[in-house]
Amino acid sequence: MWVELLCGLVIFKLVKRFFYNDDLIDIETSDFNIKFHVANRLEKLYGGKVHLGLRIPDADSGSRQNIDMVLVTKKEAVVVNVWNFSGFLSVDKDGNWVIVDEKKGKTVKHHNPVVEAKKQVEILESYLEQRGVALPEGYLSAKVVLPNPKSRTIVPVNFPPEVITYDEWTQLKPEPKALFSGWIKDTFTGGKKEMQEGIHKQLRSVLGSVPMWDRLELKENKYLLGEFLQFKGKDDDISALRNIKRSKVSRLEMQRSTMFGLGHSKLQVLYFARDYRNEGTSASDFKEVTVRSSTEVLFQPYNSSKVRKFKLSSIISLSLSA
């Protein structure tokens, strides 16, 4: 009996893997997950708004500059780059970061991420000026966060103040209501005065409308940033989803599923109309469509050349950039 059960389990997994092509089996989302973790913690610590996965047009290169996130509070705006490396870190004579990856067993050299982050600040400042946002001098700065507990330094490294090591990251405390503690003052805010309300509102509005990566939220607390390509499935399901276009829809949410025979199920999908007056979603204006839960979403993570396929039943939500 146990042998039969074991054989049946093996066959089920093989069928699921090769015929259903569910990428949740082997997808690696750790880099994206850590970015969402950092963004959520920053909002809790400083009470601001984090704009995640920005793609800022760069006039010099004619392309778009990826920015992990921008934290906006009433006191400042901070470009935050997240380095989720695992291994030993050293800095060579040219200022490059050299990482010995324990997991992959190889050494990788990177350009100084602080220099890259400061370059992103310049690009963002230029873009904001083009959009009519003139920030007070010094209110836009850069930080590089190392949130991985497995990150180590081979020799003592005198990081510049823009780098937040893992130990420093774990010691951050929530912002006091009236005064900043010395630790937080030195780390993120620099004791800055509150930004004028009009400039702060204008900055939030512009950042809420900049090009961004699409966001896919999966079950088991997994996230992906990248580009939604299309739906794939039965003709009647694709026809039912024909009105879901990024020019009209900002977000999809997967609701409860129902059985409709032969072990198949259908899934209710809510899709929210895009509201260009706000930050992309109108909570009161949504429509509902019911399709097979096996209908797939084709999605390409921005750090990968491979197109991924996900069943709607494995997805919690999908946010689309304008």
UniProtKB/TrEMBL annotation:
NERD domain: residues covered: 30-147
Pfam family membership, one: NERD
Signal peptide: none
Name of the protein: NERD domain-containing protein
